[in-house]
User: What shape does this take?
Amino acid sequence: MAHRNGKTLENVKIDIKRDTQGGRGGTIRELFSGPLRRNTILLSLFFFGNIFCEFGCSAYFPIMYSSGFCKNSKEPGTETCTALNLNDMIHLCIVSFSGVLAVTISWIVTNKFGRLPVLRGGTLTLFLFTFGMFFCVSRGFATFINVMIRCSQIMANMALWMYLPELLPTVVRATGVGFVNSMGKLGGLVGSCAVYLLAYSSPRVLIVLFLGANLLSLIATLFLKVESRDLLLKDDLAEESE
Assistant: This one.
């Protein structure tokens, strides 16, 4: 039984009606029609590039420590599989657990300054620090670069998952979240395959692909116009078009 100001409320029957007129059932078609098309495309491109980098870097970080490309060598690593030692594992743990700090900072900053600044700022720093992968002169430097890449990627990712549900109207919110997420998974698949194909034979080409994915995400964020913090959530497409 519901209560309000210490008093019991009477039973209230709530009728939930689904608007199926005009095909308004939360379909993919609705995401690509009217005012939703622009944001759907931009957020899909952003998440494709973001998860391309996340999955790709997760697969590539261990290779950086074990290949010749990250041991002060002037030549790319050879096609060998070198076991990681304890020191390598410690460096990888540092990179992984740095994400906890990134989550905390992202939560604070997105609630204070908004979603778009963190979305753009995280993607920009991710793009800039990815250049550091070209200069993998020591394990310590590689760990610093990898920590910054991981933190930047997580901050942008968290900002997206605050921004996206607040931006879409209720009738297509679940569909939109699912579609953008599927584009991210596609990016992760392509990024992982790129690492397996290029990490040993052409690591510099692989880093260029990371930069390209990050640039795609960055450009997408620059075209997003609406800040969703404190935005009144909309329920249907008619409200969205107003």
The first helix runs from residue 28 to 31. The two ends are 37 Å apart (CA to CA). The CA atoms of residues 161 and 177 lie 9 Å apart. The longest strand covers residues 3-4.
